[in-house]
Amino acid sequence: MSSTEFKKTALIIDDSEINRDIISTYLEDEDYEIFSASNGLEGIEEYKANKPFITFLDIVMPKMTGLVVLEKIKAIDPKAIVVMVSSYVSRQNIQEAKDLNANWFLIKPFSRQKFSETLRKFEPK
């Protein structure tokens, strides 16, 4: 994707409204257009409808885990940029997410600086 095609869009999939609000605030400060979902099914539909540049995906959610959502998003678009976000990260979760081609991990709580650094890893230069 060239920088002329780069559109600052992000999807947040997290069952916690507080976490969605925090990430939204950080993204707004970076001039991103934001889509959000409170569960995996909504998240997959939002992904299909909006094809965001980057997705922030909670690992632990009711009904459908973030790992299942990750697998489904990568099936839709293998090049999707997905950052896994969680306060509970086990070696097993990390390995499963790597096996499913997660692009990065953010451990909650994280600072605004750490969040911005993560965005920069994926934005075109």
| Termini separation | 11 Å
The spatial strand order of the largest sheet comes to: 2-1-3-4-5
| Count, helices | 5
Overall residue-averaged pLDDT value: 93
User: Which outline best applies?
Assistant: globular
Radius of gyration: 13 Å
At CATH level 3, the topology is Rossmann fold
- The low-confidence runs, each spanning 5 or more residues with pLDDT under 50, are none
Number of strands: 5
CATH architecture assignment: 3-Layer(aba) Sandwich
Helix content: 40-55%
Tally of structural domains: 1
N-to-C series of helices and strands: EHEHEHEHEH
Task: Return the CATH class.
Answer: Alpha Beta
CATH superfamily membership: Response regulator
Query: What share of the residues does DSSP label as strand, in percent?
Result: 15-25%
